[in-house]
Structure formats: C-alpha cells, structure tokens
Amino acid sequence: MQTFQANTYHLPPLASESAQAMRQIVNGLAKPIASLGRLEELAIRLAGIEATTSLRLRQKTLLVFAADHGVTVEHVSATPKKVTIVQAGNMLAGHTAVAALAIAAHCQVQVIDIGIDSQRTFPKLINAKIAYGTQNIAQGPAMTREQALKSIKIGYATALAAINNGSEVLAVGELGVGNTTTASAVVAACLQCTAAEVVGRGSNISDAKLAHKISIVQQALTRNQPDSTDPIDILAKVGGFEFGGKVGAMLAAAEHHTPLILDGFISYAAALLAQKIAPTITDYLVPSHVSHEKGSQRALQQLGLEPYFDLQLCVGEGTGAVMLMPWLDELAAILTHMNTLADMAIVYKK
C-alpha cells in the first residue's frame, strides 16, 4: 500500500486498443453511426477500463460507507443524527431507496460502518468503525491524519475484497447526516473557493439554515486552513470517514481495471480527493447523474466528467449510481444481439 500523497499514485493507463476496437464494434452495428448516442461512448469507456471488448458487467456491487459528522451539532441539517444508524439497518433490510433500486438492478449492497456514532449493529453490517463519528470541523480538524489514511485503506480493502469475490462493476454510496456540509468543505478546499460558492441545501433546509450552513463551512475552512495541495490534509481537517472509504474504493477499482460508478455530490467530493492522489483516476470513474448541490458543476468541471442523466435526485445513498446499472445490462444486450452492418451487407455513406 502507498501513502496516498498528492500525485504519487500511478495507475495503469486505459487500454486504448480495446477502446478503439469497441469503437469499431459499435460503429459496425446495424444502425446509423453514433445513433445510440452516449450509450456508445459508455461502451468505449468501459472497454478501455476493462481492457477488453468482451465487457464484464453482470456482477454488480454497491459499497455504502456510513459515518457520522461532528459538525451536526452546529444544526446544519434538517435530519437528526440518529437517522444514520437507523437507515443503515433499513438499507440492509432492503427498505431504503437505494436498497429497493438495487433489487431491481440485481446489485448486491454492502453497508460498511466506517464511523457511525452508535453502538448498535445489524446482521451483515460490516464493522470497520474508526471512531464514533468525526469531530466538529467548525471547531477543529475532523480527524487525525492517521485516521484519514486508515479510512482510505479500509475503502481500498473493501473494494478489493468485492473484486476478488467476483464483482465486475462497483458503485459507491454513503450514509451520514451532515455529509453535504462536509462535502462542501472538501470541494471548497480542493478548488480553493469560498463556502458561498459551493454550499447547497442538502436535506432541503430553509433559507435561514442555508445561510447558517454557509457560515459554518466558511468557519471550518478558516479555522482549519486545509492545504489544497495535500489530499490527506483536506480529508483530515474537513472531511469524513466515508469520504476516505470512497477514495480507497476508487483507487482499488482503477488498479484492478474495474469500472466504478459515482453517485452525486458526496461522490464528486471524494473523487476530487482521489484525483489529487492519482491524477488519472477519473479515466476509471463512470458518472451517473447530475447532483443539484450548488458545488456540483464546479466539481464536475474539475473532474472532467459529464453525468449521463438528470432526474433532480438528491437522496444520496448511491441511488443515481444504481439507476445507471440497468443501462449496463441494456448495453450488453445490444452488443450481444444486434446485427452488424456486415451481416446485412449495408454500407452507410455520409
């Protein structure tokens, strides 16, 4: 394992030959060139990631990293903190939004307690607790540097175990009241912008609470002074344990040529941290939906990613990532069952 310092994590390049071969395959299907739009682009991206045109997309796993945030004592969320552990249990029982969607998408869901502020547990809840939530970022660092590194290593090990157990596609989600506040601080630190430029409404808070949330995020940035060139410093000072877990999962997936689907704003924030560690990481990440948190467009621009759909989702959990998964099944069906232009002896002329 590496130390995850900035620009030191070297990933294998995408398989350009496989990507080009997939481009020729989709261009040769019995349809006008590029008429399947961004679905063709997705096929080419996946071929580059997996280094094959025989895409492996059947076994899908969503990794949900769950943790609490000390900043909730500042009343930045409309949701009480106890909801994190309650929803962890509901998710494992199949009763949250993403759990229901995962049933339809034939996706396994793993919930990892990486820092829930509760002693409660549930069957199948993976215990990787670093601490009972982070510290209040408005008053000081969220965690120690050692804890930040540990969170990344936990995410890496969790993703690697899923891959070794047969997962061919990974996605990341999260549970954690207050995490949009933390995500806003991470994005602001990564992009060197103010809280007002990135803070959104999160759990649909009021105008007054939004103004308060902006002031708390700005206070966290001013008090902690995260180093924008050091992703571990950003994570330790204004991040959350689930952010580190996602970063580790992204690195493991990329190293092992496994596509990883992002969800919304929390995933974007984690991806910005991962990008600082491994600048080419975004080649291996598959965006799903457009988040409507205020800092989303800035984050996506920095990542160079364009999400595939916009349903105005803001529930989190990994819902958008799982909603993209049926597209993968449809893509596999197209590549398997469609005739080719050669089969039909047709030549399109521009």
UniProtKB/TrEMBL annotation:
A molecular function (GO) term: nicotinate-nucleotide-dimethylbenzimidazole phosphoribosyltransferase activity
Cross-referenced Gene3D superfamilies: 1.10.1610.10, 3.40.50.10210
Reactions mediated catalytically: 5,6-dimethylbenzimidazole + nicotinate beta-D-ribonucleotide = alpha-ribazole 5'-phosphate + nicotinate + H(+)
Pathway(s) this gene product operates in, as recorded in its UniProt entry: Nucleoside biosynthesis; alpha-ribazole biosynthesis; alpha-ribazole from 5,6-dimethylbenzimidazole: step 1/2
Keywords from the named record: Cobalamin biosynthesis, Glycosyltransferase, Transferase
EC supergroup of this enzyme: transferase
Entry EC no(s): 2.4.2.21
Pfam families (UniProt xref): DBI_PRT
Active site per database record: E317 (proton acceptor)
InterPro entries in alphabetical order: Nict_dMeBzImd_PRibTrfase, Nict_dMeBzImd_PRibTrfase_bact, Nict_dMeBzImd_PRibTrfase_N, Nict_dMeBzImd_PRibTrfase_sf
Superkingdom: Bacteria
Biological process according to GO: cobalamin biosynthetic process
Family recorded in the similarity comment: Belongs to the CobT family.
Function summary: Catalyzes the synthesis of alpha-ribazole-5'-phosphate from nicotinate mononucleotide (NAMN) and 5,6-dimethylbenzimidazole (DMB).
HAMAP family, A to Z: CobT
Protein's recorded name: Nicotinate-nucleotide--dimethylbenzimidazole phosphoribosyltransferase
Organism from which the protein derives: Loigolactobacillus coryniformis
Lineage: Bacteria, Bacillati, Bacillota, Bacilli, Lactobacillales
